[in-house]
Amino acid sequence: MKILFTLNDEFDPDAGGMGVTSGLLGAYRERGHDVDCFSFADLPSALPFRGKSLLFPEFVAANLRRSQADVIDSAVGDGWLLAAAVRRRGAPRPLLVARSHGLIHFADRARREEARRGGLELSWKYPLYWGGFRIWEATRALRLADLCLFLNDQERDYAVESLQLDPTRAPVVDNGLPESLLGQPFEPSDAAPGEFCVAHIGSYLELKGVRYAAEGLIALMTRHARARVTFLGASCPPEQVLADYPEELWPRIEVMPRYGREQLPELLRDHSVILTATLKEGFPLGTLEAMACGLAAVSAATPGPLQYVRDGDNGIVVPQADGAAIGSALERLIADPDLLRSLQRGAHETAQRYSWRRIADETLALYTEALERLG
User: Fold this and answer.
1) Residue 74, SS3?
2) pTM recorded for the entire structure
3) Helix, strand or coil, per DSSP, at residue 134
4) Under DSSP, is residue 310 helix (H, G, I), strand (E, B) or coil?
5) Residue 322: CB partners within 8 Å, gap ≥ 6?
6) DSSP 8-state code for residue 338
7) What residues form DSSP beta bridges with 178?
8) What is the pLDDT of residues 350-370, one digit of tens each?
9) Beta partners for residue 231, in sequence order
10) pLDDT tens digits, residue range 183-205?
């Protein structure tokens, strides 16, 4: 099978949607499929990021002829222009797959709710582009696609019920982990006695719930002199993170703007908990990767992490936008080492199920079924 991925982002196998695409690329090639990927790396390097974002769908549409793909697996935002280009080619045409890396309708809802709570300021232009055109664009792409792939049950159900998608062409597919993170021995934190180390993985942004994470972490670190936190992949200068915390806590806060996925087992070796306070997420890989390294999860009740974080089994689930609940959950784990150990073991076992090889086989089967429907 000849498969073309398109993703409107830079090619960074350690980041977001491109990390997902990179995992599938490798797994598909292992199975003998001919796979290619169009990304911002195919556009002139002199173009600014915003210019690449605007031109990328047109670039992909203009280059479809040379791909001769059986399947075009595209990020939802690119899909409506691709659908028009694919249909102009005539029959036979490739299968058009719209892949959600987190439904923008949910992101819009989260932004508006956080703005109402006072944690985010939306510009006057927001309803025109992110809260308007981009939502129309994603809806149009989903309706034109032959197969729509979603990352969690809540987003899929919303698309079926509110966007009127055919449920037979709207399955949920998991994201996966690289083989280097699977099969790691279960070795709970080897932190020094009395230390309690929390990790936060992902960009330091308002929609990641960072102000609620800060509220819970400040309470924890104020009460426990040997509690500390590491921010991995913050994608910002350390000063931006530290500004949200009292200066006396800074010596116990470490910020790494970037890291390599292969570094995680060592970086998390003395950590006990992965904190996910996010307000919107399709399927947070950083949390699952930390669970594969033996960290218990403390997660907001957000659709993405709820796809694999189960309260009392591999983590503790707290209400969204509730810093006090985050602090209480962390306190509970400090006070009950047996519970912490049980959740760590459950987290490690859960993560072992998310192999890219399994997910690739399941997704290829969905392609085949959809191609048969396409005729």
Assistant:
1) strand
2) 0.92
3) helix
4) coil
5) 212, 300
6) H
7) none
8) 999 999 999 999 999 999 999
9) 200, 255
10) 888 887 666 677 999 999 999 99
